[in-house]
Prior knowledge:
Elements: H1 3-26, H2 39-44, H3 46-49, E1 53-66, E2 69-75, E3 80-86, H4 87-90, H5 92-99, E4 106-115, E5 121-132, H6 148-153, H7 155-161, H8 163-185, E6 189-190, E7 196-197, E8 209-212, E9 217-221, H9 226-234, E10 239-247, E11 259-268, H10 272-291, E12 295-298, E13 301-304, E14 310-313, H11 314-322, H12 332-341, H13 352-363, E15 372-375, E16 387-388, E17 391-395, E18 397-402, E19 405-412, H14 417-432, H15 443-450, E20 456-462, H16 463-470
Parallel strand pairs: 3-5, 6-10, 14-15
Antiparallel strand pairs: 1-2, 1-4, 2-3, 4-5, 7-9, 8-9, 10-11, 11-20, 12-13, 15-18, 16-17, 18-19, 19-20
Amino acid sequence: MSENILEDMNELMLQRREKLAELRExxxxxxxxxxxxxxxxxxxxxxxxxDKEVKLAGRLMAIRTHGKASFADLMDMTSKxxxxxxxxxxxxxxxxxxxxxxxxxxxxxxxxxxxTRRGEVSINVxxxxxxxxxxxPLPEKFHGLKDKxxxxxxxxxxxxxxxxxxxxxxxxxxxxxxxxxxxxxxGFLEVETPMMHPIAGGATARPFVTHHNTLDMDLYLRIxxxxxxxxLIVGGFEKVFEINRNFRNEGMSYKHNPEFxxxxxxxxxxxxxxxxxxxxxxxxxxxxxxxDKTVVEYEGTELDLTTPWRRITMVEAVKEYAGVxxxxxxxxxxxxxxxxxxxxxxxxxLSYGExxxxxxxxxxEEKLIQPTFVMDYPIEVSPLAKKIADDPRFTYRFEGxxxxxxxxxxxxxxxxxxxxxxxxxxxxEMREAGDEEAQMMDFDFIRALEYGMPPTGGLGIxxxxxxxxxxxxxxxxxxxxxxxxxxxxxx
Length: 491
C-alpha cells in the first residue's frame, strides 16, 4: 500500500473519530432497533408489502445525494434494499444528520415500501436512528476487496463487501444441517467425544501437543475421533456420528488446513459396502436438497453425483491409470521395479503395499474426476481396517474421490483385538524409526475390543473439501470462516 493511500486512510479515520466524539456528546446513538423485516423479504413480497410500513436495520453501502432528497443502499444479513430519504419526510435537521453519515455506518429505518419510476423496489424512509459509527472506511466501491490475504485475515470485512462469500457460508450451514437430518432419519445418534487425547490415534498424522497443568501431562489435540466412537459401539450403541474439528500438524495448501471439520460415523452390523452406499446417497441428497441439483460444476468441470458411483480396486486403478499391473507380482522387489519403470523412485525399505499406494497417490488420484470409490487398500496403510480373508495383503477399505480429491475414507472396521495390537506394534516400530505420523499404542482401546465389538462399518467425510466442491470454491480457505494464517507483521 503506497504512502499516499495510507495518509488518505489515516485522514479519513481521523475525520470519522471526530464525528464519533461529536455524536457521543449529542447522545445520538440508539440502543437497539426493533425490526419487522429483512431486505430480501421486501423484494420477494413486494405485492403484499406495497405501501405498508416496515422496519429494517443494516449497514449503509452507498449514498447518492440529490439536493433535498437522497438514495442509499442498506445491506443486512439477507440482501440490499434501496432507501429514499427526503428532507420533507424526516425534517431538515434529521436530513442534515443523514447527509453527515458515512458508508459503513449501521442504522435502523422505518418507512413504507414503494417502487421508483424505474421500477426498483425501495423504502420511503419516515424516520431513522444511528446504531453504530464505522471508524474505518470500506474498500473502494469499484475495486472491492480482492486481496486474498486480507480477505482471509479480515473475514468480517470480506463478508461485508463480498455478498457471494456470505452465501457460501450460508450454504455451508445448510449442508451440515441436512447432513444431520439425513443421519438422524437413518437412526444415527449424534455424540461428542474428547478434543484432547492422552494418545494421538485414529489416523496417520502428526499431532499438535498441549500441556495440562493440573495433571502435569502432555495431551494431543485430536487427529480423529475414531477410537472413541468405536468404544461407543463396544458399549452397545449401534449407530453414532460426530461432526466436529480435527487438528493435524501438517502442511498447508489450497486443500489442507491444520484444523478442519469432519463427519465421522460408525454402524454396527455393517461393512464397507454399506458405507459406500451411505456415502453416495448422503452426498447426492445434500446436493439435491441444498442446491436443488445433482450435477454440479467445479472449476469448469461438470460432476455428476447421481448414484451409484463407480467402484474400482486400487490395483485395478493403478493398472488403468498408471499402466502397471500389480496382480502379476507379489514381492516388494518387483513392486520397486514396476515403480521405476514409470519414473517413480520410492524411498528404500517400503513393502509391496506401500509402493503400490505411492504409485496410486502420485499417478492415479488426480485422474479420478467423476465420483469414484477406490477399494481394497494395502494393509500397511490401513492399520484400523479389517483384512481381506482371501488376500491378507489388502483390507476392506475404500476412499471416495471427486475431482481428484479424497472426500471420504471408510473401513470394515478391524474388531480382532489381537490383530489390532499387532498392527499398533508395527506402527510403534515405524514411529520409533522416525515416522512422526505413525500411530501410537492405545492399550485401553485394545481392552475395549477385548470385550467384543460387533462387525462395524466406519466412515469419515471431510466436510470442508465437500463444501469446496458443492460451492465451486478453489481453496479450502474459501469455506472456512477463519482459516489458519501466519501472524501479521507488526509493521
